């Protein structure tokens, strides 16, 4: 995002009523299913990798794991994306990568989620393999082929280039813009 662009909620009073009316218009039941979530974001018909990624994002937003995103979960997710401190965002990214939920990210998990993200965002300067190898080379300090949450957060916070790359690659503000405007923007 450019310096002069802003997202709703940047000011002192968050525009929750805007999100609430949009949420209720798109989802009168107050419960957003995965199918409705994809429809809301204009992300139907993705390839398998893209679908995997969107399902992971949905599952992480679905805090109580009931298979739906309710309004409170939706707002918690939006707040994290807009206002979250960097370590909160890194924890969120870690959960996104840790597909099997074992508390560690291995190369296969990172590769598969980055491939999926590329399928959606479409723009990147390096292949998923290059990205994965670079991340592990920079922050897998004990060379065990796995990253713990601590290794991940301290490694990314230590490395400005990596921080910028991860922040850009996994920037969800595009998702929020789609939700806000109600239509798909080309990036």
Give the strand content: 5-15%
Instruction: Count up the helices.
Output: 10
Structural class: mainly alpha
CATH structural class: Mainly Alpha
Q: Describe the biggest sheet?
A: 2 strands, antiparallel
Summarize the structure.
InterPro entries: EF-hand-dom_pair (IPR011992), EF_Hand_1_Ca_BS (IPR018247), EF_hand_dom (IPR002048), Recoverin (IPR028846). The chain is mainly alpha-helical and 187 residues long. Helices cover 60% and strands 5% of the residues.
Structure, explained:
With 187 residues, the chain is mainly α. It has one domain (14-180): Orthogonal Bundle (Recoverin, domain 1). It is 60% helix and 5% strand. The protein is built from ten helices and four strands; from the N terminus they run H-E-H-H-E-H-H-E-H-H-E-H-H-H. The protein has helices spanning 16-26, 34-40, 48-61, 71-83, 86-97, 107-121, 128-139, 149-158, 160-169, 173-181, and strands spanning 31-32, 69-70, 104-106, 146-148. The strands form two sheets. It has a two-stranded antiparallel ribbon with strand order 1-2. The longest helix is centred in the middle third of the chain and has 15 residues, at 107-121. The radius of gyration is 17 Å and the shape is globular. Residues 1-13 and 182-187 have low confidence and may be disordered.
